[in-house]
Design a protein that fits this description.
Elements: H1 2-20, E1 31-37, E2 43-48, E3 57-61, E4 80-84, E5 95-99, E6 107-109, E7 130-135, E8 142-148, E9 180-182, E10 195-198, E11 203-204, H2 207-214, E12 220-223, H3 231-236, E13 243-244, H4 249-257, E14 258-261, E15 268-273, E16 278-285, E17 290-299, E18 303-306, E19 314-322, E20 325-333
């Protein structure tokens, strides 16, 4: 009996470790950089608007865009750093800091490919530069977010100068929230600030309120010397986590207890949980229309769902309810 119990405990621990290392595909705007420092040492800060699963790799590069919305096909000549989400994942609103002088162990230099230099990590220029967030490789990446310290606009050309950038395909620098933020000194392609930081509250009612505030260029200040006030004070005030009042502790715990896999998926998915009683699952599209719903009657075990007859390729949201708690998981159908 003892042997069987130990075997059961081992299997459960193994299954939980698999759940905690399920990497994921991000969409534009899922994370936001809100601090950029080109003066030595290079630094930046980002936060996430979705839960990040352990093992997820996120690449940060100072390679700029050409007018076609891609990297220079002949190679950008600059490097990148890779952030690997640690065991346990990252919760919504957590803040991650990069410091080139003493990078956290989750950061490592990007190995390089045909586009991005493999011999160096991130090296932000004081002559003007940008940081772009991607997944995949420089050959065919997915663009997630970009902050441009070289200009308030995105009219530059990386082939003309590595201190310039255009706008990467799929990102937008208009409206709010946006996925590309220009925080330079002026609209010219190289009217730069060496350093720029968000200048506002870190307490928000909703995730969308946080997105709007952190991607509004009007909420940023730029300086060319890191001792210029109020820059040092703003840097010191960066929190370890945003405060989003609509997200309760129970909701965070529910979200961390449930994993939807595989994701991306062909429509056949499994909802895994660690003993949570799941009452209902509702799948909606990006416009909020209900695609399908399931009454799971308080099940505490994994549940397989076949959505292939309901969905096409694209992004969907899965609302999973347990009592008066609800967590929303983003689902990518390929």
């Amino acid at each position: 009996m003892k042997t069987k119990l130990l075997l059961f405990i081992f299997i459960m621990s193994f299954m939980l470790s698999i759940q905690q290392t399920q990497a994921q595909t991000l969409s534009p705007g899922d994370i936001s950089i809100f601090w950029y420092q080109a003066d030595t040492p290079d630094k930046f800060a980002f936060t996430t608007f979705v839960e990040l699963n352990a093992g997820t790799e996120i690449i940060f590069t100072d390679c700029g865009a050409v007018p076609g919305g891609t990297f220079d096909p002949l190679g950008c000549g600059e490097g990148a750093t890779v952030y690997t989400v640690p065991v346990g994942g990252i919760q919504i609103g957590e803040v991650v800091l990069f410091d080139d002088a003493s990078p956290a162990p989750e950061f490592s230099d990007y190995g390089g490919d045909a586009i991005i230099n493999g011999s160096s990590g991130l090296g932000v220029s004081t002559g003007g530069d940008s940081i772009t967030v991607i997944q995949g490789t420089g050959v065919s990446p997915s663009f997630i977010f970009m902050i441009n310290g070289a200009s308030t606009g995105f009219t530059g050309d990386d082939t003309s100068s590595t201190t310039e950038t255009n706008l990467f395909t799929g990102l937008t620098d208009v409206g709010l929230p946006r996925t590309a933020v220009g925080v330079g000194a002026g609209p010219g392609a190289s009217q730069e600030f060496d350093n720029a930081i968000y200048n506002g509250t870190y307490t928000f009612a909703t995730i969308n309120d946080a997105k709007i505030a952190l991607t509004d260029p009007a909420n940023y200040i730029g300086v060319n010397t890191i001792t210029t006030a109020p820059y040092p004070t703003l840097v010191a005030a960066i929190p370890t986590k945003l405060t989003i009042t609509s997200l309760s502790t129970d909701e965070f715990e529910l979200g961390n207890s449930i994993v939807v896999t595989p994701n991306p998926s062909n429509g056949n998915i499994t909802i895994k949980n660690s003993g949570v009683a799941i009452d209902k699952v509702v799948v909606t599209d990006v416009n909020g229309r209900t695609i399908s719903s399931y009454d799971l009657q308080g099940t505490t075990v994994g549940k397989e769902l076949n959505l292939s007859s309901y969905v096409l390729s694209g992004m969907y949201f899965m609302s999973i309810s347990s009592g008066d708690r609800t967590t929303v998981k983003k689902l990518i159908i390929k």
